[in-house]
Design goal:
13% of the residues lie in helices and 30% in strands. β3 and β4 form a beta hairpin. It has a domain of 109 residues. The relative contact order is 0.15. By secondary structure, it is of the alpha+beta class.
């Protein structure tokens, strides 16, 4: 009777490596509600092999110079969702807006400032961090006719010099053209004067 064949280690299939955790499908969105800027988030962690070393979600905002880390909370069964005020925004006890990023009240008047998280109006990156991380698109919400993202009665739009109606004549050449027309008019008057004087 032949001895049983013992399989070598090379004949067993290798154990597949553990799957990397993923935040695919997670999203962060800016919204304006009741003249207040908010950030809403939906975070989903897929980690079938329990490789993630953290259960706390953090949102990291940056404009390339400044950075702000906002702890969103702990995931429950790999899920976390909610809404938070945009950094620098505030509401009073009645839920009415009382502050906006980049604005401060001085002497009863709202004035723009580089403080109060004004830089978050021009973000260059936003990252959800759990381990793994996920870069997500996020920008300060635009104002609409129904929702202001700045104090009442003020605007952040730059004042532009009104342009000329599009006629093919630039603002630079217009004074030259008017000057030329003036010379032609003067010349015509001189010529007429000479004709009448000859008579």
């Amino acid at each position: 009777m032949a001895a049983p064949t013992i399989a070598s280690a090379e004949e067993y299939p290798p154990t597949p490596p553990p799957a990397n955790p993923s935040l695919a499908g997670s999203a962060v969105t800016s919204v304006c509600d009741g003249n207040v800027p908010y950030i809403t988030y939906e975070i989903a962690l897929t980690d079938p092999d329990s490789q993630s070393t953290s259960n706390t979600a953090t949102l990291i905002l940056s404009d390339g110079t400044n950075t702000e880390s906002i702890v969103l909370g702990d995931l429950v069964n790999g899920q976390l969702s909610g809404t938070i005020l945009w950094p620098g925004a505030s509401v009073d006890a009645n839920g009415e807006p009382s502050g906006w990023p980049g604005w401060t009240k001085v002497g009863g008047q709202w004035v723009q400032t580089s403080g109060n998280f004004g830089w978050t109006r021009n973000l260059t990156s936003a990252t959800i961090e759990v381990n793994p991380d996920l870069v997500v698109p996020l920008s300060y919400p635009d104002a609409t006719p129904d929702c202001a993202t700045a104090p009442p009665g003020v605007t952040t739009a730059s004042v532009e010099t009104p342009g000329l109606v599009s006629t093919g004549v630039s603002a630079l050449t217009l004074p030259i053209g008017l000057g030329a027309l003036g010379l032609v008019a003067v010349g015509g008057v001189v010529m007429l004067s000479r004709r009448y004087s000859r008579r």
